[in-house]
Design goal:
Elements lengths: L9 H5 L18 E3 L1 H7 L4 E5 L11 H14 L4 E7 L3 H12 L3 E7 L5 H12 L3 E4 L2 H20 L4 E2 L7 H19 L8 E6 L3 H12 L5 E6 L10 H16 L13 E4 L12 H14 L8 H15 L4 E5 L7 H4 L13 H4 L9
Parallel strand pairs: 2-10, 3-4, 3-6, 4-5, 7-8, 7-10, 8-9
Antiparallel strand pairs: 1-2
Bound molecules: pyridoxal-5'-phosphate (PLP).
The site of pyridoxal-5'-phosphate (PLP) has 18 residues, from α4, β7 and α8.
């Protein structure tokens, strides 16, 4: 599963002092860029590209792998034996953490809160279980507190150490560094002629590590690209106030590791948080999001989903006419490697009882398998 070495990250090449940051190579990098010729033709966009972070891992891809390289690197450097993280029941972040923590020999506890039902929730729960994660069905925030207290106690009593805690979505300053590197990676691909410098990047915002890390990295790499962050969660996970704070904290962490890394102001003019595409709620699919999922599957054989990437592409499609003549990059943050074989035959009754309802109740109306 491990590919690459700590020396070949573009961010480390640009700022060698950053090699002091704890890091565990997990991802298959660089992720490819490709032209979305068919969707571009339909939208009359001559220069529409996709960044294939869905291919960031052979076992499990998506945007979380880049963050986990730094989060797990730090946890291992601190001698952790277990990690604890948070998410909704179908969280891609919790699943990625489960898979890559197990690969690193760490126990994983995932504190999972209720969400709207979907086939992807079922699949992710089963895959997390197969990865050996301890999946905790928490009834909202009070439930999380109870489960966290219990896990802290058990881990300390039985293993003499508290788990390393990763925030929802892995969007601490440490995790966000993964997307600072992603911007430097993009710059190399631009310099190699694989795509023109984008005027705009469309990317989903769940907990903001991806869009803020990119914004910081683009600035540091000297690119003029602007970020359109499509909010698919509510505050406090996504908010206009959070972006500059996470930007500054990540910038400070990088400068601590390498004082040559520049001190940067949050570029208000290069970051736009777009509300209005989430629909009624997080993880509740929208007509426009599902239509976007269908369109790109049929036009360019790219697999998206309804919670993050469909809503983001829906925003791009809605903006279409105003984007003509510009270089546009859609950042695909969803996993594409198929793991249906890994979960075939797994009985949901083996999961904690609190999750059984996802398999017994219907999925939401707009969901397709
Ligand atoms: C598929 C997918 N896209 C986008 C995101 C959002 O990324 P971030 O939490 O860094 O904003 C997530 C996770 O939250 C995700 O699972």
């Amino acid at each position: 599963m491990t590919t690459g070495t700590d020396t070949d990250l573009p961010l480390f090449t640009a700022y060698p002092g950053l090699k002091n940051l704890p890091y565990r190579a997990l991802a298959t990098l660089p992720t490819p860029v490709a032209r979305l010729a068919h969707l571009g033709a339909m939208l009359e966009l001559d220069s529409l590209y996709i960044k294939r972070d869905d291919q960031s891992g052979t076992v499990y891809g998506g945007n979380k792998v880049r963050k986990l390289e730094f989060l797990l690197g730090r946890a291992l450097a601190e001698g952790a034996k277990a990690v604890l993280t948070f998410g909704a029941a179908g969280s891609n972040h919790a699943l990625a953490t489960a898979i890559y923590a197990a690969d690193a020999g760490l126990r994983c506890h995932a504190m999972l809160v209720p969400q709207h039902n979907a086939h992807s929730v079922r699949r992710n729960l089963l895959r997390g279980h197969v990865a050996g994660a301890h999946l905790h069905a928490c009834a909202g925030r009070p439930g999380v507190v109870v489960h966290v207290a219990q896990v802290f106690k058990d881990e300390f009593l039985h293993h003499g150490k508290l788990p390393s805690v990763f925030p929802p979505g892995g969007s601490s300053p440490v995790g966000t560094i993964g997307f600072v590197n992603a911007a430097f990676e993009l710059k190399q691909q631009i310099e190699a002629g694989e795509l023109p410098e984008p005027d705009l990047i469309y990317v989903a915002s769940g907990t903001m590590g991806t869009c803020v890390g990119l914004t910081l990295g683009l600035r540091a790499a000297g690119l003029n690209t602007k970020v359109q962050a499509i909010a698919v969660t509510k505050a406090p996970y996504t908010s206009a106030e959070k972006a500059p704070k996470l930007f500054a904290a990540t910038n400070a962490l990088l400068r601590e590791a390498d004082p040559d890394f520049p001190q940067l102001d949050f570029p208000e003019d290069r970051f736009t948080l777009r509300q209005g595409f989430m629909g009624e709620d997080y993880a509740l699919y929208t007509e426009a999001g599902c239509e976007a999922v269908r369109r790109i599957r049929e036009s360019d054989e790219v697999k998206l989903e309804g919670t993050y990437t469909g809503k983001t592409l829906g925003a791009l499609i809605a903006d279409g006419p105003s984007l003509r003549g510009q270089n546009i990059l859609f950042w695909n943050t969803y996993n594409s490697p198929d793991f249906s074989g890994t979960i075939a035959g797994v009985d949901y009754h083996d999961l904690p009882e609190g999750f059984h309802r996802y398999f017994e109740e219907p999925v939401q109306a707009l969901d397709a398998p």
